[in-house]
Amino acid sequence: MLKTQQVTLARFIFIILTVLMIYTNASADLFESILMPGPVITAHEKLENNCDQCHDTSSKVKQGQLCVKCHTHKNILKDMTKNTGFHGRLPQSTVNDCQHCHTDHEGRNAKIVLLNPSTFNHSNTDFSLKGVHKKTTCNACHKTNETHASAPTACFDCHKEEDVHKGKQGKKCGSCHNASNWKKTAFDHDKTDFLLKGAHKKVNCSSCHINQKFNDTPTTCFGCHQINDAHQLGYGKKCETCHNSTKWKETQFNHNKTDFPLVGKHKKISCNSCHVSGDNNKKLPKQCYGCHKNDDSHKGRYGKKCTDCHTSLTWQKQKFNHDKATDFLLVGKHKKVTCNQCHQGHLYNDKTPSNCISCHKKDDVHKGKQGEKCDSCHNEEGWHSNVLFDHDILKFPLIGMHAATQCEECHLNSEYSATESDCNQCHADVDVHKTKLGTDCESCHNPNSWGTWLFDHDKQTDFTIDGAHENVGCYDCHQTNSIGPLKASKDCIFCHRNEDIHNRQFGGQCGKCHSTKSFKDVNIQF
Q: How far apart are CA 409 and CA 428, in angstroms?
């Protein structure tokens, strides 16, 4: 029974083939249609009646070449040749066996691209999924109705709308950004012609690249920091001459290499203290007075050679050696006197006198009465310190108790020359004689002791003390006051008027008849 059915089927096929061989070419297409396994996809519909266009049953290699020949515009051949893309990374056994993956004749709407997004290994393409791309959906990159291979691989092609640089940085986003974090940049600025050093390492890109402009960005300090130039172009545009990128306010200019080395306090002052005009090219004076004229407390009276007295270490401490540079040594209180106290005029035009009275005239308590040679009594230690004067050269030498007496005890005011030399002028209050013996005290007393006195009436006067006069006291005869040397009358009547029984009939020369022994002894002499 089975054998009979087989024979019948064979006869039927033979009849069909015979009939078909008799027809024209159109009949041949009909024949191929009868042999097709099923309808092709819509894209191959135009080739459906021309099997030779797509099929070469002689070998798989030739069959694959026909596929590639038709799909050349998809760069499949290029990928397979250079081992790029998905097709270039396929196993060698399937390189030319397209139908291994793409089986047609499954109907017009059949999907012949056997790709499972959930299992597809994107590393087999030219674009490995890294970073955020691993979590991105396929539709985000592969647009509908477009082949997967047509999806762009350059960052800019997908992220153009997100480019904050607006294309000004070009399209090589990967030179700065990475797929893990778009905002985290990894651009190596040191590979450019402007190395990032110091504070530049922490500066945001936008601080230098304004409006995302990276090309033609200035590389000079002044190009970026002109707005920060406190010197207002006074020091030129070569900021690096003084400043560095580590700390803007820390200058490094070596002033000692100029013709004005900075020493002393000059090391600590700001540039603007000297370069007040702001023009660094303007030649500045190198002499002290050129800068410190306004600080000159002498008002120009000491000239312009400030270094004769001052140093750059401290303006207030003078170095001028008055003892070596002048003929007036500063000793005693003169050491502490300020320059202005003596040099009140112009130091060089007006000669400063060296005698005491020229400076101390207003201090002269003697009002000029003692002359102008102050140093004959005083010294530089002080007006009242060890006053030394040789009183013995005067008409009143100091001897005895006078040598130990203070000047003020005799000189009651500063006019020493007006002091009287009479003893009684100083000792009137101790004159027990109450001037009855005159004021010529030295005729009896001496300076060694007031209580030691010696007077010889017979030798020092022309009135001899004898007779009854020997027992008479001084005041018995000298009863009236007398200024200066004592002047007493020698006439007897002067003292004995009350005893004159003659009532002056015999005149006043009693000694012609009487003697000093007794009035009763009469010796008339004619």
A: 13
Q: What confidence category does residue 13 fall into, taking pLDDT thresholds of 50, 70 and 90?
A: low
Helix spans in 59-136 (H): 60-70, 76-82, 85-88
Rounded-to-integer distance, Cα 432 and Cα 33, Å: 183
The DSSP bridge partners found for residue 449 are 446
Backbone angles phi, psi at 452, to 5 degrees: -95, 115
The pLDDT-based confidence of 4 (bands split at 50, 70, 90) is: low
Q: In the prediction, which pLDDT does 5 show?
A: 53
Spatial contact of 77 and 85, defined as CB atoms under 8 Å apart: no
Contact (Cβ atoms closer than 8 angstroms) between residue 65 and residue 96: yes
Q: CA distances (Å), 499 to each of 9, 242, 492, 513, 515, in order? A: 224, 124, 10, 14, 14
DSSP for 321-375? -HHHHSSS---GGGGGS-HHHH--S-TTTSPPP-SHHHHHGGG-TTTTTT-S-GG
What percent of the chain has pLDDT above 70? 91
Measuring CA to CA, which residue among 269, 268, 276, 265 is closest to residue 315?
Answer: 265
Residue pointed to by tokens 């991105």: 136
Query: Minimal CA–CA distance to 102: which of 67, 57, 78?
Result: 67
| pLDDT value at residue 24 | 41
Grouping H, G, I as helix, E, B as strand and the rest as coil, residue 228 is helix
Residue 34's pLDDT band (boundaries 50, 70, 90)? low
Strands 449-453 and 445-446: antiparallel
Q: Please classify residue 196 by burial: count the beta carbons closer than 10 Å to its beta carbon, then call 0-12 exposed, 13-18 middle and 19+ buried.
A: middle
CB atoms under 10 Å from CB of 359, counted, come to 17
Interval 157-175: pLDDT, tens = 888 888 888 777 788 888 8
How far is the C-alpha of 440 from the C-alpha of 398, rounded, in Å? 17
Query: CB within 8 A of 33, min separation 6: which ones?
Result: 48, 49
Six-digit token string for 29: 């297409």
The residue with tokens 């390492």 is 201
- DSSP assignment of 467-526: GGGGG--HHHH--S--SSS------HHHHHGGG-TTTTTT-S-GGGTB-SS-TT-B----
Highest mean pLDDT among 69-78, 133-142, 513-522: 133-142
Closest alpha carbon to 231 in 279, 273, 269: 279
Element (H, E) at 451: strand 449-453
The mean pLDDT of 145-163, rounded to a whole number, is 85
Angle of helix 2-22 relative to helix 25-35, nearest 10 degrees, comes to 150
The pLDDT value recorded for residue 15 is 58
Nearest to 365 by CA among 377, 380, 355: 377
pLDDT tens sequence across 201-252: 888 888 888 877 777 888 888 888 888 887 778 788 888 888 888 888 777 8
Which is nearest to 298 in space by CA: 339, 356, 240, 357?
339
